[in-house]
Structures are given as C-alpha cells and as structure tokens.
C-alpha cells in the first residue's frame, strides 16, 4: 500500500504537494443539538505533478460520495484522517479538476503531538473553529498545508437565533422555517488553517473603521459597553488606522472580532477575523495587547503567509512587535522599553531555541514571539525609523497574497534598506544564544 504524503515536516500526515486548491465552496448544515454536521465541499483542483490520486485531509467525518468532473472516481477511501481519491485516469501537470465531496458526522477537535487540540469545538452554547495549525480537517476536506492558499465561499445553515460569523464579507442571509443560512465570501487567497466558522448568540457592534469593522459579542453586552470592552475592543478602529500608517492599507474588505460567552485559553487568529474568550475583554494591558496582536496578523500571517511552519517567527515576531508599537502609540510603555524588558527576561531563560527553525515542539513557544520582536527592534535600531517602516510596508505590499520564507525576508530587507540586514539578523535567527540588544 502506498504511503500517504506529508507536505511540511512540522505537521506530519497533513498536505499533498501533487495538487493545489484554487477555491473551496462549502455548503454546511449544522445542528447544535447533537453536534451534527452535514457538508458538501466543491474544490477546484490544480494538478501540480502528474498523479493518479488526490489525497485530502479530513478527520473524524464520514464521506458518503465523491465525484471528479461530475463522474465517480475509480474509488475513494478514508485512511488515518485522510481521504484518498483514486482517479479514473491519470491527471497531468496543469490539469484543472472539479472535486465534490459529501460528508457528515459529529465534528470534534483533532489532537496532534506537540500542538494539542484544534478544530471544530463545541462551546456552552455555540461553536468555535480554531484552525492553527492543524484544525482545518475537522470540518472540511482540504489540502492542509500553509502554502496552499485558495478563495472561499462558506455557507452555514443552522438554528434560528444564532449568529454565524466566518471569513470575509457576509454575502447572503436567508431564513427558512426554524433554520437560517449565512454565506460569507473570502476573495483573497487564504491558507486552510485561517478558515473559520463561529456560531453563537451574539450582538453585532459596528465600529467606525477604514473598512467594515464589527465585534460580535455575547447577547446583551453589546447594548451596554463596559469600560473593559471600550479599552480593548472599542479601540480596534484606532489600532487599524495606526497599523495602516506603519504597515500599509488594511489588506482585506472587512474585519470582525468575535467574543465568545465562554472563557478561552488563548485568542484565535483567522483571516479577516479574530476570536477572543470573554476573559480577554479587559482594561489590563495583558489583554489589550492581544487585541492588537491578532489584528496585526492580518498583515503578518494572513495576507503575507509563511510557506513553511518553521518560519513562524515571520508571523508571531511581527505581531508581537506590533503590540509594542501600539503600546507607545496609545500612551503606554515605548517599544524600546518593551524590547529592553523582554530582552532582560529572555536572557534568564534556557538558550536552546533557534528562531528560524525552532522545531515543532517549540514553534509556539513564547520565546519565538519575543525573540522575533527583538530581532525586528534590532533592525529598526540599525537602519532607523524611516527605512524600517518603509521595509515593513514594502514587505506587505510586494508579497501580498503570497507565501514566504525567512530567506525571502532577508533578501528583501537587504535590497529595500541597502543595509546588511541579513548579516545583522543571522545571530538572532540561527544561534541559540540570545544576542546583545
């Protein structure tokens, strides 16, 4: 029996490099009572290498029917959280296929070594989907690798009385009897781990931002905003405008923040959307900074996305540094003060992490976040503010919708600034020992 492919060694058993998804069109029906999901996924497939099969990621859900270009394939089978579709005839490089998968079941989080659980998860009264890094297969058949970006159309039909929030703009909302359908369109290419669905009893609060910007908050709280709410979520429009000044225009057509009625362990990043537990709505800087952090990912992680999980510092280091910039902008501690504070703390910790390749067990270690931000602060100190912020805006503008690596950033930074940024960053990225600031 042929083995199953792995696209990224940080996430074994996910992804297939012989094909790429151009688009996903998902039609989902979900019953909260009983946690029942029925889905049809229409995937436009581009063949990248000559192949006689397509391997998709799908975990914990049963496939009832598969078609390729309107016909049954030679066969399909489910193996170890994968759907293997054997084609009726071999597909050549460059071929475009229309794949349809019908599936159903009781979705649940997927537990992976090093990364814990992620995916479709029931709340006390609703649902969240935490995709990063391996949760996408718990609710859609997909090519689950970070460098495979596609457009999405997501329709969710669920019980009346619940609000559905997903990626992109709400295109259509229809009620039929005791159920209601919500259709969202994300027309900017998106990695699978950034796709999400949020279902709950929410009030929608609009903010006066440069694009449609809303918060979905537990029913009743949106009509009586608290000081905690105003300190964090209430300043998202200000954050967005500040980030536009440093990083360039907000890259998507809308942005939403969802606050669940449950406490969550950590906030969740998605494209054009972030999710927070009610425990993250606070005046405390430790909570406010996370609102800024998740918003910054829209530039660093969503519109410009890593090609390999080992380069996670390109997301988390940049988002962490954005927290420090917002602190200074909003009257708090300066970015330089935060840099010195965290450098001092990191110096007291184990020196066993390589920033540009931390390994799957350490890829979400807090040292990746802080050391990545410190590396950027070192660049800023070397080249000056004008060249530094020009580098950030240029990086986003010139790599929008693309997948990138650390090597891409270093080469770009050298060209853009005219300085030896790659030489400066080499010890920050490649050495275990923390460089002096």
Annotate the secondary structure layout.
Elements lengths: L18 E13 L4 E12 L3 E7 L4 E7 L6 E5 L2 E10 L4 E10 L4 E3 L3 E8 L2 E5 L18 E11 L3 E4 L2 E8 L2 E13 L5 E4 L1 E6 L5 E6 L8 H5 L4 H12 L7 E6 L7 E3 L2 E5 L7 H12 L8 E2 L6 H17 L5 H13 L18 H18 L1 H15 L3 E2 L1 H12 L3 H10 L7
Parallel strand pairs: 1-11, 17-18, 18-20, 21-22
Antiparallel strand pairs: 1-2, 2-7, 3-6, 4-7, 5-6, 8-9, 9-10, 10-15, 11-14, 12-15, 13-14, 16-17, 19-20
The count of strands amounts to 22
| CATH homologous superfamily label of the largest domain | tricorn interacting facor f3 domain
Strand order of the largest sheet: 4-7-2-1-11-14-13
* Contiguous helical run count: 9
The biggest beta sheet is recorded as:
7 strands, mixed
CATH architecture of the largest domain: Sandwich
CATH class of the largest domain: Mainly Beta
| Measured distance between first and last alpha carbons | 54 Å
What's the number of structural domains? 3
Q: Rg to the nearest angstrom?
A: 22 Å
- pLDDT averaged residue by residue: 96
Return the CATH topology of the largest domain: Immunoglobulin-like
Category by helix and strand content: alpha+beta
Helix percentage = 25-40%
Low-confidence stretches: none
Architecture overview:
The chain has helices spanning 227-231, 236-247, 285-296, 313-329, 335-347, 366-383, 385-399, 406-417, 421-430; strands at 19-31, 36-47, 51-57, 62-68, 75-79, 82-91, 96-105, 110-112, 116-123, 126-130, 149-159, 163-166, 169-176, 179-191, 197-200, 202-207, 213-218, 255-260, 268-270, 273-277, 305-306, 403-404. The chain is α+β, with helices and mostly antiparallel strands. Helices cover 26% and strands 34% of the residues. It is built from 9 helices and 22 strands. The model has no long low-confidence stretch (mean pLDDT 96). The chain is globular. The protein has a 7-stranded mixed β-sheet with strand order 4-7-2-1-11-14-13, with no helix packed on it. Helix 5 (335-347) crosses helix 6 (366-383), helix 6 crosses helix 7 and helix 6 runs antiparallel to helix 9. The chain folds into 3 domains: 1-193, Immunoglobulin-like (Sandwich); 201-298, Neutral Protease, domain 2 (Orthogonal Bundle), CATH 1.10.390.10; 305-430, Orthogonal Bundle (Neutral Protease, domain 2), CATH 1.10.390. Strand 16 (202-207) and strand 17 (213-218) form a beta hairpin.
